[in-house]
Design brief:
There is one protein chain. This protein is of the alpha/beta class. It folds into two domains: about 5-175, 3-Layer(aba) Sandwich (Rossmann fold); about 185-250, 2-Layer Sandwich (Pantoate--beta-alanine Ligase, Chain: A,domain 2), CATH 3.30.1300.10. About 40% of the residues lie in helices and about 20% in strands. The protein starts with a strand and ends with a strand. The chain has helices at about 10-20, 35-50, 65-70, 75-85, 95-100, 120, 125-140, 150-165, 195-200, 200-205, 215-225; strands at about 5, 25-30, 50-55, 90, 145-150, 170-175, 225-235, 235-245, 245-255. The chain binds pantoate. Pantoate binds near residues 29, 31, 133 and 154.
C-alpha cells in the first residue's frame, strides 16, 4: 500500500530506515494531476529501484502568475489511486511552510541557460524550480531522479545543477509522452476547450516541421496562437504558445 507522508520529520525517519535496509530510491517529483507522462516516469522508477517515491507539491515559487498557480489542478485522490495501482511506495505531500522555513530567502540561481526561453518569459521560474528540486533531492536522497523531456530546459538545468553541486543523484531523462494527435501530455491540457484543443494539436505538427524557426512562428501566429518563442538551441527546437490563458510548451530534435 502506498504510504502518504506529509511531514518532513516523518519522512526523515522513513529515509533512515530505507538507508539501513540498503534499498535504492527512485524519485519522481511532480506537481500532481498525474497523467500518462508521469506514469511513464513512475514505471521506469519502479523498474530500476527497490523503492519508489513520488512527491506532489504545487510549487508556488516557480509560478510568475498567481492566476496560473491558483488554477493549477489539484487532484490528490485520483493521483493517489494511480500511485497505489502502480505500487509506488511513498507519496510525499509536504506543505509550503515546511519546505520553505526560510520564506524563500535562500534560492538556487543559474545565470546562463536559465535566462532564455522559459526563463525570459516567466520571471523567476527557474529559481523556483531549481530551489524546490534541490530541497527535494536533499530530503529524498534518491539514487535516480526521473524527469520528462517535455520540459527540456528544466531537465538540462537540473542535470547540470546536480553536477555543479556534486549531488549523488543521477538525473534520468524520459521521452515526452504524446496523445494520439501528437500533443505533449501536460496537466494544463485539461483546461483546453474542444475548439482550443483542435488548435493546440497544430502546435507540435508545425514545431516539428522542416520549416525555419521564423516560418514556424509566423505560421503559428497566422493560426491564432500567441507565440512566446520559437527558438533553436544546441540541435533542438523549442516553442511556447498561448491559447487563451492556457500555455503550452514543446520541443523537438532538429534534423539537418
Ligand atoms: O516539472 C514539474 O512538474 C515541476 O517543475 C517540478 C520538477 C516538479 C518542480 O516543481
Amino acid at each position: 500500500m502506498t504510504k502518504v507522508i506529509e511531514s518532513i520529520a516523518e519522512w526523515r525517519r522513513v529515509r533512515q530506515q530505507i538507508l539501513l535496509e540498503d534499498r535504492s530510491v527512485g524519485f519522481v517529483p511532480t506537481m500532481g494531476n498525474l497523467h500518462a507522462g508521469h506514469q511513464s516516469l513512475l514505471k521506469r522508477s519502479k523498474q530500476e529501484n527497490a523503492t519508489s517515491v513520488l512527491s506532489i507539491f504545487v510549487n508556488r515559487t516557480q509560478f510568475d502568475d498567481e492566476n496560473d498557480f491558483a488554477k493549477y489542478p489539484r487532484t490528490f485522490f485520483e493521483d493517489y489511486a494511480l500511485a497505489e495501482a502502480m505500487g509506488i511506495d511513498y507519496i510525499l505531500l509536504p506543505k509550503y511552510e515546511e519546505l520553505y522555513p526560510d520564506s524563500y530567502r535562500y534560492r538556487v540561481t543559474e545565470l546562463m541557460l536559465s535566462q532564455g526561453m522559459e526563463g525570459q518569459h516567466r520571471a523567476g521560474h527557474f529559481d523556483g524550480v531549481l530551489t524546490i528540486v534541490m530541497k527535494l533531492l536533499l530530503l529524498v536522497k534518491p539514487a535516480q531522479v526521473y524527469l520528462g523531456e517535455k520540459d527540456y530546459q528544466q531537465l538540462q538545468l537540473v542535470t547540470e545543477m546536480a553536477k555543479a553541486f556534486f549531488l549523488d543523484t543521477k538525473v534520468i531523462a524520459c521521452p515526452t509522452i504524446r496523445d494520439v494527435n501528437g500533443l505533449a501530455l501536460s496537466s494544463r491540457n485539461n483546461r483546453l476547450t474542444v475548439e482550443q484543443y483542435q488548435l493546440a494539436i497544430r502546435f507540435p505538427k508545425l514545431l516539428s516541421s522542416q520549416k525555419t524557426a521564423a516560418e514556424i512562428r509566423q505560421g503559428l501566429e497566422q493560426l491564432g496562437f500567441m507565440v512566446d518563442y520559437v527558438e533553436e538551441f544546441q540541435g533542438r527546437r523549442y516553442g511556447a504558445v498561448r491559447i487563451g490563458d492556457v500555455r503550452l510548451i514543446d520541443n523537438f530534435v532538429v534534423y539537418s
